[in-house]
Amino acid sequence: MAQIYLTHEQLAHRFAYHPPATDEKRKCHEHVREVCLIAAEEIVTLTGPSTREQSLAITKLEEAMFWANAAIARGDDI
């Protein structure tokens, strides 16, 4: 079974800074952050005082925001 390695170009793309090249991408980044903030506020409101579970939910939401923004930044079709 052959091993598959990421190429230097693939790794460089993943670790590079991807500034918003268009106003549309910038707006998409902003919208993702706004939607995630609203969701985070709702989670805190619905779950009450801080708990481990609430903290994990917020962390996962932060991760979702990161990956959504990475998809916008790394993608070439927006």
Q: What report would you give on this structure?
A:
This protein has helices spanning 8-15, 23-47, 52-74. The model has no long low-confidence stretch (mean pLDDT 93). It is flat, with a radius of gyration of 17 Å. 72% of the residues lie in helices and 0% in strands. With 78 residues, it is mainly α.
Q: Can I get a quick summary?
A:
Helices cover 72% and strands 0% of the residues.
Would you tell me the structural class of the helices and strands?
Answer: mainly alpha
Q: Please tell me the overall pLDDT.
A: 93
**Count of separate DSSP helical elements:** 3
Q: What fraction of residues sit in β-strands?
A: under 5%
Q: H/E series, N to C?
A: HHH
What does the overall shape look like? flat
Which regions contain 5 or more consecutive residues with pLDDT less than 50? Answer: none
- The tally of strands reads 0
The profile of the biggest β sheet is:
none
Radius of gyration: 17 Å
